[in-house]
Inverse folding.
């Protein structure tokens, strides 16, 4: 992963900080027992965090809202599988990313842009320029990418998925994933350098 990708990832994590950390075990247990007040408290505590992840991938608000509902449904129905070890946020993040990629495979068609040959040189952007951009500016630039490139870029940079994992999640091949990432970086570089 390039230094630019690390800067983007850091800024994105700053943009989606959670108010309050690990929820109390009792709150999770109450949610598992279908306590509506506990579920509301858990929802309120994490809705911004989860919505922030979704919005990196999805520009359309109605689609983002649909994914948010699906993600929380999966979180609440899967809480019994959370074993209280490891980060609760990390456990939820996997569910959210899987929900986003499920939505992608179901509704988003692959763009015709596909190259069999892959450019082997990575595209880099001056880290000083990227470092001066705010999270919302970066998010705006990422939203301008075509759907497949945006998904590949987010999965690679923010979730640190390998091209093999990306290919499995999106239903594309690894070469396509590599090309989409490189082209996304090229497009972002063009947009950043013209700012």
């Amino acid at each position: 992963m390039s230094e630019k990708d690390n800067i983007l990832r850091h800024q994105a994590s700053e943009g989606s900080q959670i108010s309050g950390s690990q929820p109390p075990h009792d709150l999770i247990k109450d949610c598992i027992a279908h306590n509506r007040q506990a579920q509301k408290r858990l929802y309120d505590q994490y809705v911004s965090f989860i919505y922030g992840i979704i919005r990196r991938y999805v520009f359309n608000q109605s689609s983002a809202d649909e994914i948010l509902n699906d993600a929380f449904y999966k979180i609440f129905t899967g809480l019994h599988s959370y074993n209280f070890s490891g980060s609760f946020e990390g456990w939820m993040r996997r569910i959210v990313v899987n929900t986003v990629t499920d939505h992608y495979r179901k509704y988003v068609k692959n763009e015709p842009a596909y190259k069999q040959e892959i450019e082997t040189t990575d595209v880099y952007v001056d880290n000083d320029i990227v470092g001066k951009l705010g999270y919302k500016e970066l998010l705006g630039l990422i939203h301008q990418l075509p759907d497949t490139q945006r998904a590949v870029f987010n999965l690679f940079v923010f979730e640190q998925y390998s091209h093999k994992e990306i290919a499995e999640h999106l239903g594309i091949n690894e070469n396509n994933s590599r090309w989409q990432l490189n082209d996304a970086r090229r497009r972002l570089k063009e947009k950043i350098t013209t700012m």
